[in-house]
Design brief:
Helix content: 25-40%
Number of domains: 1
Distance between the termini: 45 Å
Oligomer: single chain
CATH class: Alpha Beta
Order of helices and strands: EEEHEEHEHHHEHEHEE
Number of helices: 7
Length: about 240
């Protein structure tokens, strides 16, 4: 069963998406007929066991992996119709991504890391905006520090500031607390949800932590590359930020 594309407040639409990769043992079906619609401003957790296709689904949503079949539309743009350059421009303007690994550029300061997307977009106020973005995650005192001089929690907050800096309509977060201890991870998640609530960004969050998944309005469960459950969480999302990481 597939869904039809809608306009208006629907930010994410997947229609019967498949992804098959070749291996030495033969074709491997990673995604099997995924259909999903997500509205503007929704918070959605993607859960499921390792190997269920969660990270691959996020790569497809971010235009980092092209599906073998099916259609993907993000904020009215059909990804299959876009060139690699057009996909890069779409990501820069409309999609923020936070990974488990922080993916900061080690030779750049926190300020420079956050300013990069704005500089690529031609913003003349890139550094002023980056400083404001770092201040919003409690890192005004770390502007000139390099990633190697920051704690894990601080590095992930820099990554969050960078992901939000261009005002994306969609934020993809793949296990953003995976490299952090429990206490630091909770504070980073507070930061993430606070930013999401403040900006009204649509959030798709991959997590193995049930308590984090429950903070999202919806939980989508994957198994063997397909959606087996899509339900509303029992608790409303929480957007409380704590500064002392």
């Amino acid at each position: 069963m597939t869904t039809s594309f809608h306009s208006g407040d629907t930010i994410v639409v997947l229609e019967d998406v498949h992804l098959t990769l070749e291996s030495a043992a033969g074709p491997v079906n990673i995604l099997r007929g995924v259909s999903l619609e997500i509205g503007a401003g929704e918070t959605v957790s993607i859960v499921g066991p390792s190997g269920s296709g969660k990270s691959t689904l996020m790569m497809v949503l971010g235009g980092l992996e092209r599906p073998s079949a099916g259609r993907v539309r993000i904020d009215g743009h059909e990804l299959g119709a876009l060139s690699e350059d057009a996909l890069a421009r779409l990501r820069r303007a409309r999609i923020g991504i936070v990974f488990q690994a922080f993916h900061l550029i080690p030779t750049m300061t926190a300020l420079e890391n956050v300013a990069v997307p704005l500089e690529l977009g031609g913003r003349s106020d890139a550094f002023a905006a980056a400083a404001e973005g770092l201040g919003a995650v409690g890192l005004s005192h770390r502007l000139t520090h390099y990633p190697g001089q920051l704690s894990g929690g601080e590095q992930q907050r820099v990554a969050i500031a960078r992901a939000f800096i261009a005002g994306p309509k969609l934020l993809l977060a793949d296990e953003p607390t995976g490299n952090l201890d429990d206490a630091t991870g909770r504070l980073v998640i507070d930061c993430l949800f606070d930013h999401q609530a403040r900006h009204g960004t649509t959030l798709l969050l991959i997590t193995h932590d049930p308590s984090i998944a429950e903070r999202c309005e919806r939980q989508v469960r994957l198994l063997d590359g397909g959606i087996v459950e899509d339900r509303r969480a029992t608790r409303a999302p929480v957007g409380t930020i704590r500064r002392a990481l």
